[in-house]
Amino acid sequence: MREDAGGPGRSAVQGSSAPESDAHAGTRNKVARSILEHGPSTAADLAERLDLTAAAVRRHLDALLGEGVVEARQQRVYGHRGRGRPAKVFALTDTGRGAFHQEYDVLAADALHFLAEVAGEDAVMEFARTRVAALEIKYLPVVESAPEGKRAEALAEALSADGYAANARQTPGGEQLCQHHCPVAHVAERFPQLCEAEAEVFARLLGTHVQRLATLAHGDGVCTTHVPKNVTGRNPA
Prior knowledge:
Elements: H1 22-38, H2 43-50, H3 54-66, E1 70-74, E2 88-92, H4 94-98, H5 104-119, H6 121-144, H7 151-161, E3 166-171, E4 174-179, H8 185-188, H9 193-206, E5 211-214, E6 223-228
Antiparallel strand pairs: 1-2, 3-4, 4-6, 5-6
C-alpha cells in the first residue's frame, strides 16, 4: 500500500530550523535523493519510484520548491511531440545538490590548489588523468562486450553502478550520455581538469571524439556528453 506521508515542517536538507517528524524529514530526503539519482523527474515518476501517493509527493515538492532545493521545468521532448504541454519535471538546484555535499571536498580542493602552486597546472591535469585511469580499466570490458550502438548505454550503466546516476538517450546527431550526479562536482568547479580527463576517457572507451555540452561543475543540472553516431571502435580518429 502506498504511503501518504507528508506535511509541513523542516526539510531533510541542511539549513532548516522548523520542527518536523523524522518520518517526514526522511521521506522528503528520499524525494530529493530520487531526483539526484534519476535526474529531472515528474511528480508521477517520483510517486511510482517511492511508492507514495501523488498528493504526498506534491506536498514534499512544494516544500522543496519553497526552500530552493528543487526547481520546476518543462520536460524536454525529443522527436515527435504530441498534443498538450510537456509535463513539468523537478530538478535539483545547486542548493539541493549541496545538501549531499561531502566535507572532504574542501580538503581535496585545498590539496589541488597546493599542487598547482608547487608543481603547476600541468601537474593537476596529470593527477586528473591518473585518477580516472582506473575507471577506464574497469569500464573497458563492459563497453567492449556491448553490441555496437549500445556502448554508450553500457557505459551509462557502469557509471550508474558507481553512483553517477547516468543514462544514455538517442538524439538526432547521435547519443547523449547524461550524469545526474558527480562525486567531485564541487572540486571540479575550481579544477575543470577533472572534467576534461573524464571526457578523454569516454572518448577512448567509445572510440570517437565526444563533446561536453553541460556539466554540474558549471552550474548545469546534469553533465551531458554528446556521442556522435557510428561509434565503431576504441581508437578515435
